[in-house]
Amino acid sequence: MDMMTLWHLTGWEFAALAFAALLVGFSKTAVSGANTVSLALFAAVLPARASTGVLLPILIAGDVLAVLTYRRHAHWPTLWRLFPAVAAGVVVGTFFLMWADDEAVGTSIGAILLLMAAVTVWRRRAADRAAQAAVDAEGDPGERSGRSGPEEVTSRAGRIKARSYGVLGGFTTMVANAGGPVMSLYLLSAGFRKLGFLGTSAFFFLIVNTSKVPFSVGLGLIDAESLLLDAALVLFVVPGALLGKWAVSRINQRLFERLVIAATVVGGVQLLVR
After folding, report:
1. What's the count of helices (H) and strands (E) in the chain, helices before strands?
2. For residue 58, how far is the Cα from the chain centroid?
3. pLDDT tens digits for 254-264?
4. pTM of the full predicted structure?
5. C-alpha closest to that of 181 among 103, 87, 80, 261
């Protein structure tokens, strides 16, 4: 890690990193996927590869706060189905980082996110058209029953989709801490309601991000100097998480889904442009 990078930040540069840390907390408890903006801010202030090592402990702090907030809403059958595929994606991402430069990383992940966002929008519109008559006649049964998980979690199509998204999620989270949008799109397409979405993603990313630490240390992305910068920035994650917890109860399901997809598109474009 370049000592000059970490200890000679200007006031504006530190403010940008602090805002990015606050946004991480907000995204973990409100709009998952919005932390792609944080990824872009970290990469703009710090060297791209070094920024992933500094950002990872910040993300883990946000994951801990999200688990404490939404732990009762996690859907564990979905998590167990995802983990093997995610592990494979993390391994592939580790090898990819050994030779890929910043441009290759950003272009690959940005293209994946935009493609998946387009597919998700198409699938959601098709599902909305099919379900609109029933919703108009009977209301939203998911909201009334408090269901927080998908209706079908054991179908063959569901298993294939979980494996596909899991590999992509593991790959993107390893190479650029950009797994949030991928898993957000999977959880939306699987039919998760708002609280189930947040609870499941909270446990998912706490486990996955923690498991990435040894790989990041081995690649030289995390060291004592990066952790000292993390110690200063992690203080800003807490108010962001509290703001997200306050906001999520004021966001209805449809707006929630639109915000998640919009954040994914913005993140994908930022990675392509970078």
Report:
1. 13, 0
2. 13
3. 777 677 677 76
4. 0.74
5. 261
